[in-house]
Amino acid sequence: MANIGMEKFYQEFDPVTRWTSEPDAEILVVDLPGFKKEQLKLAVSSTRKLRLIGERPTGGNKWIRFHKEVPVPLTLDIDSVSATFKDNKLYVRHPKVKKTQVPQTKPPVIKKPHDQHEKNKGHQGSKASQSGGKTEQRKHDARKKEAVGEPRGSLSSKDHEEKDKVGAKWFEKYKEATGNMVKEAKNKRQLLCNLAASISLVLLILLYARNAVRASLVWNSEE
């Protein structure tokens, strides 16, 4: 009853902490000499900090206390924290976050309409190329046969004779037409010459007749 109403004098205490590791959890060990379990409080804040609070009397109105906050790593689960107190040590166990392995599945390949069209087009192209290859093979075989036989484009002696006859016939026609033109030109020239001679002759006759008339007049006047 002597301690009732007496003011408490506190001495601050900073406990030693350390982490130990287990396969499935991380454990925070806090050394708290002289403390009892009922003198401790712990809580996890929304900011992922483990808050440790404790106080105990040391005699008379003197007390020792501590207030410590320890950050909790993101790899630990703060919703499943458990604590035990043994041999003046507080053990706070934090289970490790289990990584859920999502099976890696390949996304389904959605074929677009033009993909099918391109595929059909490719099949048609392959068929066309095959038929074209066969046609080219036939042409190649035909060329080989022509190369073995008479050379392509070469003319036989009969063809040469036919060509010579045709050429001679056209030459005769050309020569005949040219000769006719020359004859016509000569005839026209001769005609012109004859016409000129006739005109000259007429003029001479007219001149002679005129002179004769004048002479006769002169003779008549003299008489």
TrEMBL record:
UniProtKB keywords: Cell membrane, Membrane, Plant defense, Transmembrane, Transmembrane helix
Question: In terms of domain of life, where is this protein from?
Answer: Eukaryota
Q: Where in the cell is it found?
A: Cell membrane
Q: What is the first-listed, main subcellular location in coarse terms?
A: membrane
Q: Does the keyword Transmembrane helix apply?
A: yes
Q: Identify the stretch(es) annotated as Disordered.
A: 95-163
Residues spanning the membrane: 191-209
Q: Which residues form the SHSP domain?
A: 7-112
List the InterPro entries: A-crystallin/Hsp20_dom, HSP20-like_chaperone
Membrane topology classification: Single-pass membrane protein
Note one Pfam family from the annotation.
Answer: HSP20
Q: Which CDD domains match?
A: ACD_sHsps-like (cd06464)
Q: Which family does it belong to?
A: Belongs to the small heat shock protein (HSP20) family.
Q: What is this protein called?
A: SHSP domain-containing protein
Q: Which gene encodes it?
A: A02p010470.1_BraROA
